[in-house]
Amino acid sequence: MPLIDDLLRHAQDRPHAPAAADPTRSLDWAGLRDEVAAVATGLAARGVGPGDRVGIHLPNSLDFLVVALGAGWLGATFVGLDVSSPPARTVALIADFEPAVVATTATDPPAAGLGAVPTTRPDDLRASGVAVRRPQPPTGPAYLIYTSGTTGTPKGVAIGHAALDASLSAMNEIIELTPSTRSMCVSPFHFDGSYATLLGTVHAGGFVTIPDRASLVFPRNFLRWIEHHAVDVTGFTPTYLRLLAAGRALPAIGSGSLRVLGLGGEALAATDVLALLRAAPELRVFNRYGPTETTIAVAHHRLGAEDLRPGEPVPIGRPHRGTRFLVLTDSGEPVPAGRAGELWIGGPQLMDGYWGAPELTASVLQDDVVPGEALYRTGDIVRAGSDGVFTWLDRADRVVKRRGLRISLAEVANALMTVDGVEGAAAVAVGQAPDTRIVAFAVLRGCSVEAARAGAGERLPEAMLPDHIVHVESLPLTSSGKLDERRLLADAASVV
């Protein structure tokens, strides 16, 4: 596992440099290496070997990182599980990937429902005896990560070691992570966006701090954590950026140690980034794009005021080195620059496939578009500029046709976000053509529904305006911190 090679190198070269910390403890590089080796010994004593899976049902913590690296030490695959998921879902995922063991804690609700699957606590793994010093060559993926995607059915995305190494190397080069980096994890560890910070910092040899996620609901705690640890790099979703903005935390971000912020996981609104850059003009802000199937992120773009026009989509940048973007029509024909089409991705960051689902894998990893080259069909609608910079427009399944007009639901939400007093917005479509209805949900502060509609009408034709705008106190989120569109669709059905 390349990350284990990184771990051993950093521990050899800089044994007493700080490596990682959470609210309860910290480790230098030598300590992290020794603890990972000890946990690997504990896992091996429980029958884990190359090619096995190790479930990790732990909150964001140093324990999570140590167990993940311990699995890699043995050539096994780690699988992060959402600690906030209902027990039934957790048990169903475990039945799908069949772990050799699940690392959990005694108080975790699902632990009693795991049946015959062995469970263990991190402390018990560390106490299993003399650490095995020789890492095992990997067999199988580096990790599995479960995503529902657009189907609603969880599927395990298998990410290989070479794909992970290619992704981390490219991201670290662009973001400029170094051994002097001090990063902070914000997103949950069952969401692969968090690995850009967590695993990217291990790859670079910097210091990663892992706060309690529950405390980060309060912007003041986010700011205190940055100040206490002199954090200079972090990343999170645009939804969390809006939370910080609502808590009036943006000016403080600009006056502290933070120098790099990566935003990803969902579409950005130009108005959000403009507000951030006005408050923190020296901050380097990157939009990062990448479906889970292409390993964390495959494109980055440093955002400046010239990229940000209220109501218009935000560029996602150019593909990483070695990665190829093709924009095609429904029939597989290339789309000229400046025109919208569906994005297909090729290159070293492609997933190995969906765990235990070869037919599903074959439906999205296709080698007949460009003979001899596997390409991932993303379902994302993008546009390539003449300068080679790509812009994400919407999902193919979120572009609806009404009154002869193709309507992007992302464009509807973006238009609402340009209205003063609209702090958040999302749009969904309900019903089938020709009776499709568009329902928008908006977080309004000092703005009426009527004013929001009128303001959006300054940017959108009448046919694109929502049939209903629903005022909400906040937009629903998934456990990954992304917008919960399934919840919105259910709410919209009751409106129309």
Automatic annotation (TrEMBL):
> Where does the source fall among the domains of life?
Bacteria
What is the residue range of the signal peptide feature? none
SUPFAM superfamilies from the entry?
Acetyl-CoA synthetase-like
Return any one Pfam family short name. Answer: AMP-binding
Residues forming the AMP-dependent synthetase/ligase domain are 9-355
Tell me the ranges covered by the AMP-binding enzyme C-terminal domain, including all copies: 411-482
- InterPro entries, alphabetized: AMP-bd_C, AMP-bd_C_sf, AMP-binding_CS, AMP-dep_synth/lig_dom, ANL_N_sf
According to UniProt, the name of this protein is: AMP-binding protein
Q: What organism does the record attribute this protein to?
A: Acidiferrimicrobium australe
